[in-house]
Amino acid sequence: MTCDTKAKLNGKVVVVTGGSSGMGFEAAKNLANQGARVIIASKTETKLKAARDQIIAATGNQNVAYKTVDLASLSSVRNLANELNMEDRVNVLINNAGAIALPDTLTADDLNLTMQVNYFGAFLLTYLLLPKLISSAPSRIVNGVAATMYVGEINFDHWNDLGRYNPITALGSSKLAVDLFTAELDRRLKNTGVTSNCYDPYLVKDTNLLSNIPGVFQNVSQFFLNMVGQRKEDVGKQIAYLAAAPELEGVSGKLYKFCYEFKNHWLVHDRWLTKRLWEESKKAVKITEKEDWEVKNLI
User: Fold this and answer.
1) What is the pLDDT of residue 222?
2) What keywords does the record list, in alphabetical order (predicted)?
3) d(Cα 153, Cα 280) in Å, to the nearest integer?
4) Domain coordinates of the chain in residue numbers?
5) How far apart are CA 30 and CA 197, in angstroms?
């Protein structure tokens, strides 16, 4: 299955979190090749600089920038949002960054580390950028999920508990939250020109996603991934397709795998749950009165 699109993105601004390596880097490279101004964001500046230089060298597009962000820090996410809001426009936000097998601990923000890195950080960044995305419409939000979301749970009383989740259910719960958030975004963004969709990269064999897993388990997992996983280049094309394909203009609230629409999690249809997720997430990331554009009726 090819996901190539020849769409030109000149004048468009695309943000890719987790863009310094793996499938995020490949997506950023594809989008730069299509003429977009691409901003990659991740934690380590040295990796970001190298990735930016590689993208420029590979595509000839000089309009590639990087910004540091630590998704385990809400203040860092707020700093990134402030910097991005100084751009003339933001047309595509790709929430690609994520991690597995992080320590079972709380962050300085008193949130479960895996939940914050995989979900709360993306929620906050998206929320703070929505007015910019709306003013830049037509715009797209593209969120990364995982098949482990089918073993995840959303329990608002316990989603930041320690000792409750193993690495798989922690990942699953955080990615289920992303999926339900995407569904709620779709409902709230009707008639704004902003769409929100998810992609499930299935299994990707050549990323550093397994780096937090202990020795022998990492080796076994990597062997399995190498047998059945997709190449990061192929997943990068799939993400770029969702960000750029003209035929997806106006398409929203869908889950994609291998560039095909895929049957979504049954809980996306639970309007009460997705609405409550939105409200509880705003509380968890401590949206301030000044940040709360909803009370200003921007949508």
Assistant:
1) 45
2) Oxidoreductase
3) 15
4) 13-296
5) 19
User: In degrees rounded to 5, what are phi and psi of residue 76?
Assistant: -65, -40
Sign, CA torsion 63/69/75/81 = positive
pLDDT, tens digit (0-9, with 9 covering 90-100), for 38-54:
999 999 999 999 999 99
pLDDT under 70: residue ranges of the chain? 1-2, 202-230, 297-299
Q: Would you give the DSSP letter of residue 294?
A: G
CATH of domain 13-296: 3.40.50.720
Write the single-letter amino acid at 181. F
At residue 258, the pLDDT reads 82
Would you state the pLDDT for residue 2? Answer: 61
Q: What is the pLDDT of residue 206?
A: 54
Token output for 166: 């193993």
Distance of alpha carbon 172 from alpha carbon 164, whole angstroms: 13
Both tokens assigned to 226: 């190498």
In single-letter form, the type of residue at position 150 comes to: Y
Residue 121 carries which DSSP code? H
Q: Give Cβ neighbours of residue 291 (< 8 Å, ≥ 6 apart).
A: 127, 128
Beta-carbon contacts of residue 38 (< 8 Å; ≥ 6 apart): 14, 16, 19, 28, 31, 32, 55, 61, 63, 64, 65
Write phi, then psi, for 64 (nearest 5 degrees).
-125, 130
Count of residues in the chain: 299
Q: In what order do the strands lie in the sheet with 37-42?
A: 64-68, 37-42, 13-17, 92-95, 139-144, 194-199, 255-257, 260-262
Q: What is the pLDDT of residues 114-158, one digit of tens each?
A: 999 999 999 999 999 999 999 999 999 999 999 899 999 999 999
Interstrand relation of 37-42 and 13-17 (parallel, antiparallel or unpaired): parallel
Tell me the one-letter amino acid at 40: I
The pLDDT of residue 231 is: 73
